[in-house]
Amino acid sequence: LNGIEITKQPIEKRKVGYVFQDPSLFPHLNVYNNILFGLRRKERESKEKIIHIKKIIDDLDIAHLLDRRIDDLSGGEKQKVSLARILVLNPNVILMDEPLAHIDFLARDKLRIELRSILRKLQIPIIYVTHFEEDIYALADSIAFLDRGKVEESGTLKEILNSYTRPTS
């Protein structure tokens, strides 16, 4: 990652965020405490970190949820909290494993639009695993198709789409 071998580093030093298909949130903590979970107390109290946390909460439009219990959230709200919890840690890259898979169709469309805006603003590289074409069209800058762990094709969205529309001689 950025020219550094990270596979042997402890997880907490890798600066890689991971958003699961099913949000892995703590039901005994409210939304705000779930977001802060990975931060050390000293970090939570620094002025810069407080400003950073507030910005993420505002960008994800979840300020109204901060006191709520996790069990009282919709699937989309849970994924936003899961993403916020990763973003407060300032990762160098985020892995997202089908984060919209268990969200109803209408909420998924809305969250997809919000997610694109948020990810563009943050300028953090995202590796986004999906089986939904809509996610690809809405979110991807570049695409890699994998089959059994091997990259079969890769390129920008435009390059990939052009390769399927070009006639073969």
Write the layout of secondary structure elements.
Blueprint: E1 16-19, H1 31-36, H2 41-45, H3 47-59, H4 75-87, E2 93-97, H5 105-122, E3 126-129, H6 133-139, E4 142-147, E5 150-156, H7 157-165
Parallel strand pairs: 1-2, 2-3
Antiparallel strand pairs: 4-5
Described by strand count, sense and barrel closure, the largest sheet is: 3 strands, parallel
SSE-based structural type:
alpha/beta
Tally of helical segments: 7
Span of the ends, CA to CA: 40 Å
Overall body shape = globular
Main sheet strand line-up: 1-2-3
Q: What is the alpha-carbon Rg in Å?
A: 18 Å
Task: Explain what you see.
- With 169 residues, the protein is an alpha/beta fold.
- Helices cover 42% and strands 15% of the residues.
- It has seven helices and five strands; from the N terminus they run E-H-H-H-H-E-H-E-H-E-E-H.
- The protein has a three-stranded parallel sheet with strand order 1-2-3, covered by helices on one side. Strands 4-5 form a two-stranded antiparallel sheet.
- Strand 4 and strand 5 form a beta hairpin.
- The longest helix is centred in the last third of the chain and has 18 residues.
- It is globular and about 50 Å long.
